[in-house]
Amino acid sequence: MRVLVVNAGSSSLKLRLLGGDDALLAEHDLPAGPEGFDEEAAARLLGALDGIDAVGHRFVHGGPRLTAPASLDGGVERELRAAADLAPLHQPPALAAADLTRRLLLRVPAVACLDTAFHASMPAAAATYAVPREWRERFGIRRYGFHGLSHAYAARRSAELLGRPPDRLRVVTCHLGAGASLAAVRDGVSVDTTMGFTPLEGVVMATRSGSIDPGITLWLERHGGLSEPELWDALEHRSGLLGLAGTGDMREVLRAASAGDADARLGVDVYVHRLRAAIAAMAAAMGGLDAVAFTGGVGERAPEVRAAAAAGLGFLGVAVDPARNAAAAGDADLGAEGAQVRVLVVRAREDLEIARQVREVLG
Predict the structure, then answer these.
(1) Mean per-residue pLDDT for 235-256?
(2) Which parts of the chain fold into alpha helices (H)?
(3) Where in the sequence is the domain holding 309, given as residue range(s)?
(4) How far, in Å, CA of 96 to CA of 257, rounded?
(5) Do 242 and 334 belong to one domain?
(6) Of 114, 140, 165, which residue is a domain's last?
(7) Which of 119, 141, 155, 355 could pair with 145 in a Cys bridge, judged by C-beta atoms 3.0 to 4.6 Å apart?
(8) So what's the pLDDT on residue 88?
């Protein structure tokens, strides 16, 4: 089955055509802005692709009722549209892309693949906020988790690299990019994650704050005169590494820190402190740890961050080989010889996970 993977986000539209053996047959990236992507350009690219047997669409949010990949029919689309308020930057362009491919590929089946679905398996203790019952029941306030497609692939690929069955592995997957989250994956199932009701919760990110005391926003609203849109914009777009070091690009932050910039040094230290604590928390959620897998732009290309995170986790049995860490390219085992816990780098391949789910849904 040749699967077209459509990944529409707030800044780009990514198209990948995978063959039956998962070989990458074609790839195209289109920029996107506040008004979405260029549908005419996308239509031209789609028209040039031959032999598409199925389409897999990435949706950031499945809402409270979609907890597994599903054929993209009218009912599923209604649920996805109802969840648009929960992912306002990502859901609308993904729905637009689904509408476009449906019009151009009339008889080709489509499957909705959901970032939140992987975390639907979390136990109630991990998924529930200690807030009033009315909020939970009336508004559906709960921890959803995100980056599920990346976490699912990284966990499965980690098992392959270690030569172990996925259902006998405890791995913390660290998706570190502009957005960042960790997941505790025990026996192939997510049992905890760092993002929650929105992607703002968790570790420090490029421009997102990660977890903060919610009282800060209430205090700023009352005493600082800040409005809800101002608070949202600040936490989403002007915090994280950008707020600490003046840039959200980890490469620039690391260069500045090595040159003696105090703000950049603080930015790295805060980032690593929160990351290290989150890895330990995820290990606790599984009752132990066999491997830590780094993926995403920062996870794959910042050996300094990997080494710094691992340096504080020796009590868990984590140790990185400096030479392997520095030389890592693509999928690799960075663990020190004899270390109890393996440390891996896994290239992010959400497209492979989406294609796998499409084939599973369509049989």
Answers:
(1) 97
(2) 39-47, 74-82, 91-104, 124-127, 133-139, 148-162, 214-223, 228-237, 240-245, 250-258, 262-286, 296-301, 303-311, 322-327, 350-362
(3) 148-350
(4) 41
(5) yes
(6) 114
(7) 119
(8) 87
Taking 3-state DSSP, the helix, strand and coil percentages for the chain, each rounded to the nearest 5, stand at 45, 20, 35
Q: β-strands 3-8, 54-59: how paired?
A: parallel
C-alpha distance from residue 119 to each of 7, 63, 162, 267 (Å): 19, 12, 23, 29
pLDDT of 9 above 90:
no
- The pLDDT, as a whole number, for residue 78 is 97
Does the residue 362 lie in any domain? no
State CA 338 to chain mean position distance. 31
In the predicted model, is pLDDT for residue 209 greater than 90? yes
Q: How far apart are CA 101 and CA 57, in angstroms?
A: 10
Query: What is the C-alpha to C-alpha distance for residues 197 and 131, in angstroms, rounded to an integer?
Result: 13
**CATH code of 314's domain:** 3.30.420.40
Both 40 and 179 in a single domain? no
Pick the closest to residue 183 from 261, 74, 296, 67 (CA basis). Answer: 296
Whether 289 and 201 map to the same domain: the answer is yes
Average pLDDT score over residue span 86-115: 95
Span 51-69, average pLDDT? 97
Q: Report whether pLDDT(35) > 90.
A: no
Q: Are 44 and 127 in contact (CB under 8 A)?
A: no
Looking at the structure, tell me whether residues 235 and 168 fall in a common domain.
yes
The closest alpha carbon to 252, from 274, 275, 268, 233, belongs to 268
Q: What span, in angstroms and rounded, lies between the C-alpha atoms of 173 and 300?
A: 12
Find the mean pLDDT for residues 22-30: 96
Annotated catalytic residues are 115
**Residue 88 backbone dihedrals phi, psi, to 5 degrees:** -65, -25
- 93-106 b/e with 16+ CB inside 10 Å = b? bbbbbbebbeeebe
Question: Do 231 and 314 sit in the same domain of this protein?
Answer: yes
Same domain for 234 and 337, yes or no, is: yes
Task: For residue 89, name the pLDDT band (cuts at 50, 70, 90).
Answer: confident
Give the pLDDT mean for 218-237. Answer: 96
pLDDT for 119-162, tens place per residue? 999 999 999 999 999 999 999 999 999 999 999 999 999 999 99
